Amino acid sequence: MQADYDSTANAISITITAADRADRSDEVHPRAIVALLDEQPIEVQLLYPDLGISEPLAAVADRYGLDHEALAAAAQSALAAPDRVISLEVAARSAA
Questions:
Q1: What is the pLDDT of residues 60-76, one digit of tens each?
Q2: How many CB atoms lie within 10 A of CB 69?
């Protein structure tokens, strides 16, 4: 997973799966747009993250069955290092 906060545009891009193109996009929340390829999410665009990230990312996670915590970690990492691409590896939870 990669994330990039563009401080000029005030938007975060979270790449879930690298792809050359998307088939369509889905506005899941007024501040969250998901790019889809074969009906699978490949990228999340989070607009105006300064207004909060939890609600729009929760909407994305709920609609597409994604890991809300992983999306939030990616967004927070991008905010911590603006205008640079951040790469994250998120493993599955270990069995307790």
A1: 999 999 999 999 999 99
A2: 12
